[in-house]
Write a structure and sequence with these properties.
The chain has 398 residues and is mainly alpha-helical. Helices cover 79% and strands 0% of the residues.
Length: 398
């Protein structure tokens, strides 16, 4: 199968994941109206899906190194599609939270395998481009979720989850029929004994010179996902608290995701050139500066929406860099598990992000203070990610 068809199918799967990842944040206003949760309970709801993502990433990555990337990917998409579709059947905030947890299990199993299949199927000279093209589907899916919320009233919040269920259940059969298993996985499996195919232990990722890169990767993922998920889940509420109307919030969050989509495509192409470090620096240095500007922005309207769009570009571009570099850290026999652990470290951050946002809001912080409270985290994460970029091997190990 041509690599481009593989990338297209993986891109569609990533877009499905992006829709589901965004649903909780953009549906929050309607959920508040129907179930009346306090900020603490809303934080638990936001974090339930990411707790499922954490578990799903580890389990899905380990299974992928045993039975293959494609089987785990299709199963994961079906799981999160079914449970997203049934989320509106929840009768209170507790059952809604459990539904998001199970949806997260499927979401967590999908992303490590999308990146592994994409990186193992792409030509060496185009690997970073293809991986970031796949990942760009995630913010594009988030934009679809934001647009869905913009076209519906808060009382019809369930439609966001219905769309988030129908789309993946439509894409899953296409992947099952047309997507081929990773040839690199087949090659390693055919030349390895049963003992060689057992999933590696945690310390295997710190051995053979991989320790520094692995630790930098884990810390970068943790802090980057903490930032992203705090913004995805709480930024709509913070904007509303700052006086933005529903349509203005929807436009701003759509811009956040569209900016991320375009930035992911740009930086992926940039990573294949001698100027790749310039793009990395631009994303990771720009992110704290843009966050500071947004925290001190006054007024409403297109100027703030544009600033949020550029911030989304920087935040998502930083994610794209990490997903492009992660497969380079591990050989094929442990790449699925390695990606699973890396994504899981990020998922711990994505659990902490909404909870941190909730704590800042509950403590009486203003929207501006919540954003400035993120700055130290963003700065440390940027330093780690830049250090990781400078330690990358020239090509992906077999």
């Amino acid at each position: 199968m041509k690599p481009r068809l593989t990338i297209l199918l993986c891109f569609l799967a990533a877009m499905c994941e992006g829709i589901d990842l965004q649903t909780a944040g953009v549906a929050a206003a309607g959920i508040r109206q129907q179930f009346h949760p306090d900020n603490q309970m809303l934080s638990f709801f936001f974090s339930a899906g990411t707790l499922g993502l954490f578990i799903g990433a580890i389990v899905g990555g380990r299974l992928a190194d045993q039975i293959g990337r494609k089987s785990v990917l299709v199963a994961s998409i079906v799981v999160f599609g079914i449970f997203s579709l049934t989320t509106p059947l929840a009768w209170d905030i507790v059952t809604l939270t459990w539904a998001r947890f199970v949806t997260g299990l499927g979401l967590g199993g999908a992303l490590p395998n999308l990146v592994a299949i994409g990186s193992e199927s792409a030509p060496q000279a185009r690997r970073n481009v293809y991986v970031t093209m796949i990942y760009s589907g995630t913010p594009l899916g988030g934009a679809v979720a934001s647009l869905t919320s913009l076209l519906t009233t808060a009382a019809h919040w369930s439609w966001i989850f219905i769309v988030g269920g129908i789309v993946p259940l439509t894409v899953a059969p296409m992947i099952g029929i047309w997507l081929e298993e990773s040839r690199a996985f087949h090659r390693v499996k055919s030349t390895s004994s049963g003992a060689d195919m057992r999933p590696p232990g945690l310390f295997a990722f710190l051995a053979d010179g991989r320790g520094a890169r692995t630790l930098l990767l884990w810390v970068s993922f943790f802090l980057a996902l903490l930032t992203l998920y705090l913004l995805l889940n709480w930024l709509p509420s913070l904007l509303a608290a700052g006086g933005f109307g529903k349509s203005e919030v929807g436009i701003a969050m759509t811009g956040f995701n569209v900016g991320g989509f375009l930035a992911a495509l740009y930086i992926g192409k940039n990573l294949e050139t001698p100027l790749r470090h310039r793009g990395v620096l631009l994303a990771f240095i720009g992110m704290p500066l843009l966050l500071l500007l947004l925290a001190h922005a006054t007024g409403r309207g297109w100027a703030v929406a544009l600033l949020i769009t550029v911030l989304g570009a920087a935040v998502v571009a930083s994610q794209a860099v990490l997903y492009a570099y992660a497969p380079l850290c591990y050989p094929t026999r442990m790449r699925g598990t390695g990606m699973g652990f890396a994504v899981a470290m990020g998922r711990i951050g994505s659990i902490a992000g909404p909870l941190l946002g909730g704590l800042l809001v509950i403590s009486g912080r203003t929207p501006s203070q919540v954003l400035t409270g993120l700055l130290p985290i963003v700065c440390v994460g940027s330093v780690c990610a830049i250090a990781l970029a400078w330690r990358q091997p020239p090509q992906m190990p077999d």
